[in-house]
Each structure stands twice: as structure tokens, then as C-alpha cells.
Amino acid sequence: MQLDRRTFVQSVGLGALGALAGTAPLAAAPTAAPPLLPAYDAQHPDAFWRAVRAHYPLQDEPVYLNAGGLGPTPQRVLDRVFGTMTEMQAHSEPEHERRIEPARRTLAAFLGAGPEEICFTRNATEANSIIAAGLALGPGDEVIFESHAHPGGSYPWFNQVQRRGVVVRLFEPDPTSAEGNVARVRALLSPRTKIVQVSHITCTTGQVMPVAALAELAHAHGAWFHVDGAQAVGLVPVNLAALGCDSYACSGHKWLGGPHETGALFVRHARLDEIAPTGIGSHTGELPFLPGVLVLKPSAVRYEYGTRNLGLVAGLAEAVRFQEEIGRDRIAAWGRELAAQLRAGLAGIPGIELLSPRADGLWTAMTTLRHPRANAAKFSDYLKRHHRLRCRPVSEQHLEAVRVSLHVFNSRAECDRVIAAVRAAAQEL
Ligand SMILES: Cc1ncc(COP(=O)(O)O)c(C=O)c1O
Question: What pLDDT, on a 0 to 100 scale, did the predictor assign at position 35?
């Protein structure tokens, strides 16, 4: 099926916006959406992925290979954002619950959580910060996490080092095996360990961490287990009931394709009272007469505290529906297929070093590679200027590499372009 991308986007976008402008009840919106994607044909998958690509207003050049940084948003998500905001401006009523609860149910079902365990945040960093600031900790209490943690996952803890005397213990990710990472965390456990945290997928090399096994280890030790899922939600299927973590931070504006400034925090319902809310306001609970005792809401809603842009929240739910329509397993498999193609092509290029794990089950659609002579900035700048490829430099922990994120809007032809460009870089730089 050949589609002219811009025509397709225009017709889909305007149609969806038109539907939103009506007065149909909110609950009807998802089912009212037309079937937007062709049936998946396993023999000819590229046509399906071209149809997916047609949903993105993303420019074709430079080729965008940074969904792990900031994921582009499909047009129908933007339409949902603007449609909701426009609709709300027509009468300027708060409508908080009416708008936010359907979105919460959608996201909770997508993540395998109960709606009462999910609160919307502005990003993954805010979710990580709520956990770091909310747990009862004192001087000398220890938190363990990986040295490759993103600043959005590590800085909230370093803030607690300064404010409450918390002690950070770091482990270097073991790229060779899941057990290796469990062993490295185990080696750092002490009677003072209060929290174990990992990135579900690391931002540096796209490595999958053994979350379920670490949950068991942390709980056996009596520690809180928090997962920074910024790089996982929307890239791989996430089932929080199965993972066993106590809390999980999500980014909406990366792999999920939600609007910028969206995220969520999951807190297991049974442990809700262990995370004291830090932002407090009218959505936190009840305090009908002053002075008095604040009664917290019996759900993670307590962390939402004040007025929200409900257009963004509605857009995030739309992004979830779009992913479900594509198929969550299919998204993960396509990313890995593209990454496998990329890895195979890179393998024959002298001097280029693959930093992402090689072991099955540990690597994802993010591939990190190092040039023998060029640092992260020089290598990524070369790819952008000379080959029109937008990758992300990886300078964390002095890795001096470049990360290529491959997602639903990327193609095999784009992978071939990356391989050719890296081959040229190996000779020219
Ligand atoms: C592992 C990890 N955590 C947190 C963040 C920050 O995400 P956000 O922009 O949603 O706060 C990132 C961003 O790349 C990340 O990779």
C-alpha cells in the first residue's frame, strides 16, 4: 500500500480534529476513531510501517534516530491535545476528573496496573523525584543504582545526599548477562540499603535490566525497589503486575509518542503510604476546614496536587491507543529487527566498537557504537552534517559514543544509510 504521507496526515488529522470538535461523550472517542492502519501482512511488513510513518508530521530529513531522547508525536495525538484544549476553552470549566480518569484507566491497563496506582507527571524525572523525596530516609541510608543512570534518575538521589545525608552506591552495568547485574547489586547490599533502583532499559547502551529478579532480591532484603522506565514504556511491553517493583517512572514523550511534558508514576497500592507527597494541593486530599488534618486520597492521584493541562493527558492516552493499534509486541519486534540489521552491517566496519550488549534478551532497538578516534560530539556531529542522520551523543561515564534509536517510523533503508555513514566515518574521521 503506497501512501502519500502528507496527504494521509492531513486527512487523518483534520478528520480526528473534526470529530473532537463535536459534542460526543468522551468515552466514545476511542471507539469512534476510524481504522487508520492497514492489516499487518507478515510477508510484506514494510507497507504497514510506511502507513505508521505517515501518521507522523516529522520531517524526512535529517533522519530522526533519537526516539530515546525525545520521541516524535503522531498527528492524531496532537489533534487530541489541541482538540481537548480547544473544547475546554469553549466553556473554561476545570473538568479535572471527567477528563483525567478515562486517560488514567487507559494508561493503567496498558501498563498492567490498577488506575489507583497511577498518577500523571510532567516527565519521568518528576516521577523519580517524587520517590526520592517521598521515602522516609535519614543520614547513612543507602540507595543502589547503576552508574549509567540518566541525570533524571540519578540527580534526585544526589539531591537527597545533600539534603538528608543519603549515601549512593553505584554499580557498573554488566553487559554480558542478567545474572551479572543481579550479582553486582547483591554485592552492594548492606544493612543500610533502603532502596534499589535501576533503569528498566539504560539510556547509554539500551541494555535491558533484570527487573523481576532485582525486585525479588531487593524485597528479600527489605528494600524499596524503584524502576526508571523512561526508556522502556512504548518500546517494549511493560506489565507492572509481573515485574514486581514498588514504583515505576514513565516518560510519555519518548518511545510512547505522547505530547511533550507527559509522564506517569506507578506506586504499588499497598505501599502508597510510604511515599509522602511533596507537591500538595487540592487534588492531594481533603481538608475541608482550617486548621485541620489533611486526609490524603486513597490512590496515587494524591501526587497530582494541582491544575493540569488535560489536553496533554488526553494526548498521552491517545498515544497509548495508537500503540495498541500497531501492536505492542510488533513494535518491540520491529525495533529489534531494524537494530539487528544495523548491528550486522556495523560488524564488518573496522574500528567501530559496539557498546550495546550482545547477549540475547539484553539488547533492544537502541544501539550504541564508538568510533576509535572521534569523541561523542565529533562523531554525532559528523553523522548529522555529512549524512543527515540525527543520533544522540553518549558522553555519560566517558563512554564517548553515539546512540541510534530505531522505532516505528524508521525503515530498513534508513538503517542502510546509517551503516554507510558509519563506514564513511571510519575512514574519514
Ligand atoms: C533512563 C532515563 N531516565 C530519565 C530520563 C528523563 O526523562 P524525562 O525527560 O521524561 O524526564 C531519561 C531521558 O532520556 C532517561 O533515559
Answer: 53
Q: Are 387 and 424 in contact (CB under 8 A)?
A: yes
Residue 231 Cβ contacting ligand 1 at under 6 Å: yes
Predicted local confidence at residue 288, as pLDDT? 85
**What distance in angstroms lies between residue 152's CA and the mean position of ligand 1's atoms?**
5
Cell reading at 368: 550504541
CA distance 100 to 80: 13
Nearest alpha carbon to residue 200 among 151, 150, 260 = 150
Looking up residue 144, the CATH number of its domain turns out to be 3.40.640.10
Domain count, the chain: 2
Same domain, 231 and 165: yes
If the chain, 429 residues long, is cut into consecutive pieces of 10 residues, what is the mean pLDDT of each piece?
40 38 39 67 92 95 98 96 96 89 98 98 98 98 98 98 98 97 98 98 98 98 98 98 97 98 98 96 90 94 95 98 97 98 96 97 98 97 98 94 98 98 97
Pocket test for ligand 1, best of 155, 231, 399 (most atoms within 8 A of CB): 231
Ligand 1: does its nearest atom lie under 6 Å from the Cβ of 228? yes
With a 6 Å cutoff on the Cβ, whether 199 touches ligand 1 is yes
Write out the H or E segment, with its range, that includes residue 334. helix 328-347
Q: Could you tell me which residues are beta bridge partners of residue 389?
A: 63
- For ligand 1, whether the C-beta of 197 sits within 6 Å is no
Q: What is the pTM of this model?
A: 0.92
At 145 the three-state DSSP class reads strand
